[in-house]
Amino acid sequence: MSRNQVVQTLQDAVGDARVLTDPEVMAGYVRDWTGRFVGRTCAVVRPVDTAQVAAIVEACAHLGVALVPQGGNTGLVGGGVPTRGEVVLSLRGLGEPLWIDAAAGQATVGAGVPVGVLRAAASAAGLAYGVDLASRDSATIGGTVATNAGGLRVLQYGDTRAQLLGVEAVLGDGSVVSHLTGLSRDNTGYHLPSLLAGSEGTLGVVTAVRVRLVPATRARAVGLLGLASVPDAVTVASLLRNSLPGLAAAELMLTAGLDLVAETCALPRPLRGTHPAYLLVEVGGDTADGETPLNTLAEAVAGLAGVRDASLAGDQRGCQALWSYRERHPESISTLGTPVKMDVTLPLAGLPTFIDAVPATVTAIAPQARTWLFGHVAEGNVHVNVTGAETAGERVEDGVFRLVAASGGSISTEHGIGTAKRRWLPLNRSPVEIAMFRRIKQALDPVGILNPNVLIPPDTL
Question: What mean pLDDT is predicted for residues 248-271?
């Protein structure tokens, strides 16, 4: 099948204006935002509704041409990049529907709607969407479903899968499944939203979802705590999680990372002196009987062993200022070069040992490399970033992922497996499980055109 035939078939399906072929125009679609994953494609197709997505998928199934569904392209594992010349199916044009059902506390949302837009629409209705990300203004709803993103407040609300009540998607033969009624209780068979969440576009192209909304939090308080050690930070996070019903976030940072953020972003030192570990915590709730989230947080923090200093804020500006030290980690690290990014989860009991062991594991492979660690400590989720290891990226990943697996952890938490991690999937999944993945994919994508080069290890395809 020639390039011209593929392009002509796509143009026949959705019109010339919806098919991009200019290399300069397509440049932003063939690389991820970190610059680490760069691919190639003969065309980028930009549908505006489910019918057009179905026409594209059906045409590609007929031709046997592979597709890579792509949302905001904010992933970190190459899952939305056409690394082997696949056609890019950009879903950013699926900006409708966006309908808030305030009475039910739900929303029906197109896959191309940015997370930040949904959050703003929910807020205007006096509600909130539980998933929040630093990339909220560019990450799309469809992309977060495909990767089952967790975000900054997963501790309080759960991951994206926990928000899903219904889904509309195009399967690998172009057929459409749509179940968007939003019934809170519906036991009429398999829960398709849960199956598609985290499938990275390998089973179907999500075009719309029905999600639950949560009550808007009227007041929040944020604290940045300086701690004597990482074990102390893990202990404090666990104590606060078990004692504060309104705890929404517990984020771990280390000295080197916080110092880098302060220097790179010209931010003042948040606490007196430096500390081996920092814990950013957020508490939400209503103000009642003179008790505010700030009072609640202050009382909970007072006297906690290991806390050497603290800065607390109860106003929006102060809370956002403290959050900046955590949210600006990725951009600060990227000023040092293209980082190798790994998003992993460890059992809480083994988290301090893992954090202590990672730098030595990395430098044994790449002596000039530097390791930056931060993450959602209450869930054992650590973002491992390594700079200065561009030529040793795969060997660094191999060392870290094997350390994760040996510690009883998961090699992927929020961004999926993508192309970057699929050869290490057997560290976490048994041959029987991977064979089951393959059978499910064959059932929903019989020709094998939907993102065929991600998730499932190549020797099992």
Answer: 96
